[in-house]
Specification:
The structure is a single chain. By secondary structure, the chain is α+β, with helices and mostly antiparallel strands. The protein has two domains: 31 residues, no CATH class; 70 residues, no CATH class. 25% of the residues lie in helices and 7% in strands. It is built from two helices and two strands. It has a two-stranded antiparallel ribbon. The relative contact order is 0.11.
Length: 116
């Protein structure tokens, strides 16, 4: 038995994917492949930030930071300048990104309703 299609990703559209009215929006809106990839922070800048912060994760305060995190996300106008970057553990960075995404959805009114 065939699975029913997903709803169109355009808010308010009652059609199923692929939607003939909104072509090109077939991918799920949170699919990382649907968004253009930003250029990565250079290795030299990454090394500088990790050394500047002494390998201490600026999100949890523990040593062993292995990635750099944008204080202001690029999607919100933040740059790749060292002043906008901080050392972070990969896990801390992922938790921060998840929390920021949830906050963004909440602000847009896309929160999941529970109960009833």
């Amino acid at each position: 038995m065939a699975r029913p299609g997903r709803p169109c990703s355009t808010p308010g559209c009652p059609r199923l994917q692929p939607c003939s009215v909104h072509p090109g929006r077939e991918r799920h809106r949170f699919d990382v492949r649907a968004t253009p990839k930003r250029p990565q922070v250079s290795a030299a800048v990454r090394r500088f930030v990790l050394e500047r912060d002494g390998g201490i994760c600026q999100l949890c305060g523990r040593p062993g930071a292995n990635t750099v995190d944008h204080r202001v996300a690029g999607a919100l106008g933040g740059s790749d300048a060292p002043s906008n970057l901080q050392a972070a553990h990969a896990g801390c960075n992922a938790r921060k990104a998840g929390a920021e995404a949830a906050e963004s959805r909440r602000r847009r009114g896309e929160g999941v309703e529970h109960g009833a």
